[in-house]
Amino acid sequence: MSNEHLEYAKEVLATEAAAIEAVRRRLGESFLQALDLVSECRGQVVVTGVGKSGIVGQKVSATLASMGTPSFYLHAAEAVHGDLGRIRQADVAVALSFSGETEEIVRLIPLLRRMGTPLIAITGNTESRLGGEADVVLSLGSVVEACPLGLAPTSSTTATMALGDALALAASRRKKFTAEEYALFHRGGALGRKLLRVGEIARLDADLPAVSPEMSVRETLTRISGPKGRTSAALVTDDAGRLIGIFTDGDLRRHVQVDVGFLDGRIEEVMIRNPKTVTTDMLVADAQKLMKEYRIDEVPVVDESGRPIGVLDVQDLLEVGFAL
Predict the structure, then answer these.
(1) Residue 101: helix, strand or coil by DSSP?
(2) % of the chain at pLDDT higher than 90
(3) 47 Cβ partners below 8 Å, 6+ apart?
(4) In this predicted structure, what is the pLDDT of residue 232?
(5) Weakest mean pLDDT among 26-35, 117-126, 196-205, 291-300
(6) Average pLDDT, integer, range 92-121
(7) What sign does the CA torsion over 179, 183, 186, 191 have?
(8) Taking burial as the number of CB atoms within 10 A of a residue's CB, which of 1, 181, 264, 310 is the most buried?
(9) What domains are there in the chain, each with its CATH number?
(10) For the chain, how long is the longest CA-to-CA vector?
(11) By the 8 A CB rule, do 94 and 47 touch?
C-alpha cells in the first residue's frame, strides 16, 4: 500500500470519528426522552429501517436485546406487507433514516400513530417528515460522508450505530442489568464462558460416593465404580458430613504401583487430606485456574458448611470450552 492510500484511510477514520464526536456534543434532553421510552417499554423495542440503515438497525436491535432490553428488527418494506402485525401498543418503535424521507419509513408513521406505538426517530434531518412526526427525534445533524463521492452512507451509518449503542447501553445501565443476566443471554461464546458458575456445569448429586475414613480402600473402590457419568473420586467425610479428604483413580494408580496391599487398609491412610474445594457460585474460570495450578482433575464442590454436594471434573470444563 502506498503512503498516499494509507493517509487516505486515516482520513476516512478521522471523518467518521468526527461525525460521532458531533453527535456526542449534540446529545441533550431529547436523548433523555428517548431513554425514558426505551427503558420503561413494557413490550419490545422495534427497530426499523431499509438499506444501510436497515443493516445498522439490525445491529442496534441486537445490542438492545443482548443488554437486557427486549427488541427485534422489522424491515420497513416488509412491515406494510403483514409484518406490522408484530407490533403492539406496548412496544416502542425506533426508525432509522438519515434523510428522514425514506418512503418505506414514512409510510409506517400513520400506521404506528393509529396503533398508539411511540416513535423515536434517528435522522440527520429534523425538518423531514420523519423528524416532524416522531415523538422523539435524535438528530445526527449535518454529516460529511467519508465516501470520496460524498454519496455512500459511511459517516452517517457509523454515527447512527454509535448513537444506537449509546441508547441501548444507557437503558441497560438504568435498568441495572447485571453480569449474570448478560451471561444468561450469551451462553454460546467466550463472553458467556467467562461468567459461567461452577453450579451450572458441575456434577451435583445427592448420591455422591461419600465414605467414612474407617472404610477400607477396597470397599471404597466399589463406591467409586458407579453409573456412567458419575465421578471417579471418593469423598471422605467426618461424622458431621464435612469433607476431610478425597481419593481419586489417579491416587489408586500411584499406590498400586508401590504395593497392592494398601487395598486392605483404611481410606484415611491414603486419602488426600484437606483437598482444594470450590462452591457453586464460584466462576468456572477461577475453578479452572485452581485445577491448573494444583494439577488436579477433580475438585469437590462443597456447601457453606463444608459438606460435599458434587464434583467438578476436568471433562466438565472441556465440555464448555475450557482447557487445562
Answers:
(1) coil
(2) 69
(3) 57, 58, 60, 61, 64, 71, 72, 73, 74, 93, 94, 96, 164
(4) 74
(5) 196-205
(6) 96
(7) positive
(8) 310
(9) 3-177 (3.40.50.10490), 198-319 (3.10.580.10)
(10) 91
(11) yes
